[in-house]
Amino acid sequence: MKPKVLFICLGNSCRSIMAEALTRHRCGEGWAAASAGINPLGWVAPETLAVLDELGVDTAGLRSKGLDEFDLAEFGLLVNLSGHSLERRLSPGDFARVIHRPMPDPFGGSLERYRLSREAIDGLIRREICGAEPLPLKFPVT
Question: pTM for this structure?
Answer without folding.
Answer: 0.90
